[in-house]
Amino acid sequence: MASASSCAIRCSRVSIRCSASSEGGGQGPHRSSNAVRVNGAAHRAPLQVGAALETSINRSLAELSAPVLTQPPPAGVGEERVRQNIPTEKQTVDPFRQALIVEGGVRYQQTLVVRSYEVGPDKTATMETVLNLLQETALNHVWMSGLLGDGFGATHGMIKNNLIWVVSRMHVQVDQYPIWGEVLDIDTWVGSSGKNGMRRDWLIRGRNSGEIFVRATSTWVMMNKVTRRLSKMPEEVRGEIAPWFIDRHAIEEEATEKIIKLDSNAKYVDSDLKPKRSDLDMNHHVNNVKYVRWMLETLPDQFLQQHQLSSIILEYRKECGSSDVVQSICQPDEDSILPQENVSMVIGPLLLPELITGHHSLAGALQQWPTKYTHLLQLKAGDKHDEIVRGRTTWKKKSHKAP
Amino acid sequence: MASASSCAIRCSRVSIRCSASSEGGGQGPHRSSNAVRVNGAAHRAPLQVGAALETSINRSLAELSAPVLTQPPPAGVGEERVRQNIPTEKQTVDPFRQALIVEGGVRYQQTLVVRSYEVGPDKTATMETVLNLLQETALNHVWMSGLLGDGFGATHGMIKNNLIWVVSRMHVQVDQYPIWGEVLDIDTWVGSSGKNGMRRDWLIRGRNSGEIFVRATSTWVMMNKVTRRLSKMPEEVRGEIAPWFIDRHAIEEEATEKIIKLDSNAKYVDSDLKPKRSDLDMNHHVNNVKYVRWMLETLPDQFLQQHQLSSIILEYRKECGSSDVVQSICQPDEDSILPQENVSMVIGPLLLPELITGHHSLAGALQQWPTKYTHLLQLKAGDKHDEIVRGRTTWKKKSHKAP
Known about the structure:
The structure is a homodimer. By secondary structure, chain A is an alpha+beta fold. Chain A has two domains: 85-256, Roll (Thiol Ester Dehydrase, Chain A), CATH 3.10.129.10; 257-335 and 369-402, Thiol Ester Dehydrase, Chain A (Roll), CATH 3.10.129.10. In chain A, 28% of the residues lie in helices and 28% in strands. Chain A is built from eleven helices and 15 strands. Chain A has helices spanning 2-24, 29-39, 46-62, 78-84, 127-145, 156-160, 235-241, 288-296, 301-306, 353-357, 362-366, and strands at residues 93-94, 99-102, 107-113, 148-150, 154-155, 163-174, 183-193, 197-206, 212-224, 230-231, 268-273, 307-316, 326-332, 372-381, 384-397. In chain A, the strands form two sheets. In chain A, strands 1, 2, 3, 6, 7, 8, 9, 10, 11, 12, 13, 14 and 15 form a 13-stranded antiparallel beta sheet that branches. In chain A, strands 4-5 form a two-stranded antiparallel ribbon. In chain A, a hairpin with a 5-residue loop joins strand 9 and strand 10 (230-231). In chain A, helix 5 (127-145) packs antiparallel against helix 8. The N and C termini of chain A lie far apart (46 Å). At the A-B interface, helix 3, helix 4, strand 3 and helix 5 of A face helix 3, helix 4, strand 3 and helix 5 of B.
């Protein structure tokens, strides 16, 4: 298991390098102007959704009351597939998920409403919700493509070759967090990434304003389910997914910055973190959202109350299973404190000293926090520390007072 | 705070008694046959949903691209309400949530799809997901009624009187857990419960089969937001909500069984549980789902792998805030072990003794577990133990092998 995982790390790095080099040529100013045009608000299409809903009614009445399976399902999983309605041919409309395949039949678009249990005490969606929605729409995209074999987005060709998807890198930028009840349009598409990888991008827009709330990109590679080693992409699988590739980037990244490795001397350390049964996903790994929760929970409460996460980059190194014990480490960039308006004006002689220096004090509220942090989750097994995921987060002041 | 909470307990008990007595007359065989008729599969209405979607297209194009506010929103919350589209008049269709108001304009019905992040490793929704969906549809019901003032389902009249909803009892019965991608129809409605309470019921059906997966009922009372004391229902609020009352029960309960109080001598005890920021809901309390997670996590993994929760009853006593430290206590009903087929047949001489008695052993797998458990969450503050919530759970063997 140890050797397989160290291979995974090696291969994963190669894959990230490939992906950066193959995409590098397409980035820069030209790329940027192209992306702005494509990703702009003009892209919002309520009429299209209306038309799709109209189509969906006819479909839902005529077809969707019966399962859309066009081939007999494999024995044993038949009942499950019927209950799920997993199509075996490409669909252009999913009425129940309010989803469409658009743009030459390859880009996935879904409309959804932020649910009450997806927001925090301030009625605003969290980064965890954003990550959940990215996962959800990615899987629904594969679902509608007719390629979904089983499990976590694996295609028929991948299942035949015993392969699963593994994410090697993820970058999420949030301009604005959606609020409870807000209607969102989420777009996602895939592209090539080096010889053996796949890139997946997302845009989340508020339907009322058409503004882009979230931009995200990710890189995926294939892992053999049995050996746990990374795999080349078989031609059969490339044949399945390549027709879906779009050459467009949701985030204009400069040359990909490498995240430094932290050690236990970092400023914030949480040890002995143990995954619970409810933290496991359909692949029986600790899910991505739990990773991010562990990362962010090392930060002081007072910082979290005043700031919101505007960007997160994750570099995945190793799987984490249900019996692992995890350590979460975090180090601020001390030089990332923003120049601010002169706060000394409000600290006048009217304030008692204990208000300024005490617990939950004004001084705490006025403290100038770093806005950039480096993170590491690692496994603890004796003296050995295997890296699970490295992270970089960027924060901004909340615009209103947190409750 | 202590006196307010003890009042809450007293009042809550009164409310539960009232509710039981006022509902008792309506139950029994007559009630039962009525409920079966109303709650049966014939009730499933895909055509209605189709028609609603059709209506919704016209609405969404003509009206819903603009906010549905018909009165100017209060200053300061205007932008938020526009982003959320909270109606100030009763709506009969919510196209984005795929929801309708049916049955004489009072019952709420929503169609939704189980999302990938709402299922566990076995691709099956958990009790936590079920509870989330109950909360979600209840709030959406108030949302569509045009009564939603702000916060967690409080009406305009409640906000004027500084009141919030508090749940005093909840009972959820699960016949079948929905699976990833399954389309569900959820119905919810409210009724009276004693003089000062409200009852809310739910039915969750699988759209493909029309089978009822989940039945749930709950009792709600009003609490003053400032004093934290339970309150009578003001006439103004009764005037708002009484026109929505339906006299029908999703669960046919016998006389409500009282849940006994446990102490720390119980078989399973988890101490020092601390809520995290992400566990708080819009009311700044630890949310219901977290309570249930704490309750169930005291049970042994091996039991949880082999069994699924088929019923849970919760009796709420006291609020739990973000700085509280909680203890979760659980006691099995030793006499609730089900008579099973004779398992000695498979424990033959071919099996090594260590397989039978070791850790993760066959004996463990064959162990006959109790199927009924009593639970208690309590606050720990010195020698004093304030009860947060009592629970009763009933379990059944999973029909297929857990992964």
